[in-house]
Design brief:
- About 50% of the residues lie in helices and about 15% in strands.
- The protein has a domain at about 35-40 and about 110-240.
- Helix 1 packs across helix 3 (about 80-105) and helix 2 (about 45-75) runs antiparallel to helix 3 (about 80-105).
- It has helices at about 1-15, 45-75, 80-105, 145-150, 185-205, 215-240, and strands at about 35-40, 110, 115-120, 125-130, 135-140, 150-160, 175-180.
- The protein is elongated, with a radius of gyration of 22 Å.
- The longest helix is centred in the N-terminal third of the chain and has 32 residues, at about 45-75.
- It has about 240 residues and is an alpha+beta fold.
Length: about 240
């Protein structure tokens, strides 16, 4: 039922908005790259998003139900007001489900011998391309929920990654995040090999990238901070 609804909405909206639901085109000239990879988020990431949707919708519908009950207890005459409120709540939950699913399906990652591209977004397609010559750090994070569902996030930072808030809500053109992948360490190794080959060709400084293995203490700190960040993000979504 859910997938049929999503496909129906896609068939109506995608042609009008000129959105391509197929795999993105490989950048011209990179079709035969040695390290070429075209990836997308794993199905476990969809389960994670679905859990977030269910949690939000449950809180939303319970709040609406309580409000409707209070109205009806105040006076039965408010029944005419309760019906559109319930209808609006159900419509909002449905729209959120469709948007969440489309956002998952349109998330793609392209790795070439010179750059990494992240394409994401439901109605507004955002594409971020990070060149190897600008990469400062490649890190892997996995909070408690990600660990439960079995996927990892791979974050690629460049020199300007610190200014996340300067480019709008959650948008940072100097940072690429590959969310919901199950082979993050393998992809990280490919990126680092790419980076090494790129800089050994004389186009960069091999010492720029942080390729050293972190200590156990550093790993614990990174894991703790990642878990705090993920929990704070989930709480913010619930509040919103």
């Amino acid at each position: 039922m859910g997938n049929s609804l999503v496909e129906y909405v896609k068939s109506l909206v995608f042609p009008y908005l000129k959105i391509e639901s197929t795999s993105p085109k490989i950048p011209h000239g990179h079709e035969n790259d040695k390290f070429l990879r075209v990836l997308r988020a794993d199905s476990s990431y969809w389960k994670f998003l679905l859990l977030g949707w269910l949690f939000y919708v449950t809180v939303w519908l319970v709040s609406i139900a309580v409000g409707v009950i209070v109205l009806l207890l105040t006076s039965p005459i408010f029944m005419w007001l309760a019906i559109p409120i319930v209808f609006f709540a159900l419509m909002k939950a449905t729209v959120m489900f469709v948007v969440t699913r489309i956002n998952y399906e349109l998330r793609w990652y392209i790795i070439t011998d010179t750059s990494i591209t992240v394409r994401q977004g439901a109605w507004t397609i955002r594409e971020i391309t990070v060149s190897y010559q600008n990469i400062q750090n490649v890190s892997v994070s996995q909070g408690p929920l990600e660990r439960y569902f079995g996927f990892t996030n791979l974050q690629i930072d460049t020199a300007g990654s610190a200014g996340v808030g300067a480019h709008g809500k959650g948008v940072n053109p100097n940072q690429a995040v590959l969310r919901g992948i199950i082979n993050a360490q393998e992809i990280r190794t490919i990126i680092l090999e790419n980076l090494r080959a790129f800089r050994n060709s004389g186009l960069g400084d091999p010492d720029d990238i942080n390729d050293k293995h972190p200590s156990n203490e550093d790993i614990e700190r990174i894991t703790l901070l990642s878990e705090i960040k993920e929990e704070a993000t989930l709480l913010r979504k619930v509040v919103e």
